[in-house]
């Protein structure tokens, strides 16, 4: 009789284990369920509900791309329409920033303070800080709906390697946890400061930033990678715009695709001892050449104050901090 009871208990344990293997609860599965239902089940925001058809005549020629992606300027979006939509359909936004070596203590605090003030105000925001030394992490008191997550990363020997390896690191973090925590992701350089509201008008499936110094130039004049052996190669005369890698973003799924493809191109080049002229930015431009972004941000969203403002620049939302490269990139 005793053996029968033991056999029954053993069978019950085996059955429970089999059920656990098939249906066990995990936070990752819960996150995946959240991701499936968060954006896919929301009604799509229509262009007419937020993008103004009338605007300053200065921007008429740069209102939209030839593949119908809107180019966002200060006078092209309806802020009240955006707020109304996202109040009914709230989203969460991730902001990824790297701060390594001297960049950490020289730039990070000002970046975080300004982001806390101006980035996606009243939205749920998670700021992901990738750094190489926890001891230099500044204290920043965050507003409500904001969370800070800090991750230690390996310190590369050259600043060029730091720049290029960030695509790989971002893709790994998005795949591992970020895609289950937020709906949208922005990746930004730390040597920038927010100056004005940087909000819902910037959200979209895949977001590219027009470069301050190249946004008015034709494709044959911009500094694309011209080495035919490089994965970042764009033939002379081809291309659309020159995009700045200091800012890019989109849905978590799209940013995962962007960073994975850029990282793949960078690593393939590395195997053949090739380094693209503008490193990860060259590979980002190649990606957006092949896979057109769904929204472009005007240079107002990433402006160099050393450059005189032209009539088309009305409100600078994010600007370049002073770049002391000789000091900052020495033994980064």
TrEMBL record:
Q: What broad class describes the main subcellular location of this protein?
A: membrane
Annotated catalytic residues: 281 (nucleophile)
Protein name as annotated: RIKEN cDNA 4930402F06 gene
Q: Which residues of the sequence carry a binding annotation for Mn(2+)? A: 189, 191
MF terms from GO for this chain are: hexosyltransferase activity; metal ion binding
The entry assigns this protein to a family as follows:
Belongs to the glycosyltransferase 6 family.
Amino-acid positions noted as binding UDP-N-acetyl-alpha-D-galactosamine in the UniProt annotation, renumbered to this chain: 98-100, 103, 189-191
Paste the cofactor note.
Binds 1 Mn(2+) ion per subunit.
- Any single biological process term in GO: carbohydrate metabolic process
PANTHER family with a match to the protein in the record:
GLYCOSYLTRANSFERASE-RELATED, RIKEN CDNA 4930402F06 GENE
Gene3D superfamilies, per this entry?
Answer: Spore Coat Polysaccharide Biosynthesis Protein SpsA, Chain A
* Signal peptide annotation: 1-18
Keywords in alphabetical order:
Glycosyltransferase, Manganese, Membrane, Metal-binding, Signal, Signal-anchor, Transferase, Transmembrane, Transmembrane helix
Positions annotated to bind an alpha-L-fucosyl-(1->2)-beta-D-galactosyl derivative: 211, 281, 304
Cofactors (names): Mn(2+)
């Amino acid at each position: 009789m005793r053996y029968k009871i033991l056999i029954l208990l053993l069978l019950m344990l085996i059955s429970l284990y089999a059920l656990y293997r098939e249906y066990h609860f995990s936070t990752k599965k819960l996150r995946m369920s959240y991701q499936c239902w968060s954006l896919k089940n929301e009604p799509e925001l229509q262009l007419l509900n937020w993008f103004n058809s009338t605007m300053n005549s200065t921007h008429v020629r740069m209102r939209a791309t030839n593949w119908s992606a809107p180019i966002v300027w200060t006078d092209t979006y309806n802020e009240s329409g955006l707020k109304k939509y996202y109040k009914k359909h709230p989203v969460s936004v991730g902001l990824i920033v790297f701060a390594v070596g001297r960049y950490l203590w020289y730039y990070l605090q000002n970046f975080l303070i300004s982001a806390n003030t101006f980035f996606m105000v009243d939205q749920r925001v998670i700021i992901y800080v990738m750094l190489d030394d926890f001891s230099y992490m500044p204290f920043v008191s965050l507003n409500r709906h904001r969370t800070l997550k800090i991750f230690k990363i390996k310190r590369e020997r050259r600043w060029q390697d730091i720049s290029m390896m960030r695509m790989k690191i971002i893709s790994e973090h998005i795949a591992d946890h970020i895609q289950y925590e937020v709906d949208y992701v922005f990746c930004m350089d730390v040597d920038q400061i927010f100056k004005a509201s940087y909000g819902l008008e910037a959200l979209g499936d895949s977001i590219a930033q027009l470069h301050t110094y190249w946004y008015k130039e034709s494709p044959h004049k911009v500094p694309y990678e011209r080495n035919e052996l490089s994965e970042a190669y764009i033939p002379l005369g081809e291309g659309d715009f020159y995009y700045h890698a200091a800012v890019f973003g989109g849905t978590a799924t799209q940013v995962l695709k962007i960073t994975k493809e850029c990282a793949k191109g960078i690593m393939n080049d590395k195997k053949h001892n090739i380094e693209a002229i503008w490193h990860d930015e060259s590979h980002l431009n190649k990606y957006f050449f092949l896979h057109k972004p769904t929204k472009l941000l005007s240079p107002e969203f990433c402006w160099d104050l050393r450059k005189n403002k032209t009539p088309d620049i009305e409100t600078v939302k994010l600007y370049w901090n002073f770049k002391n490269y000789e000091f900052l990139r020495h033994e980064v």
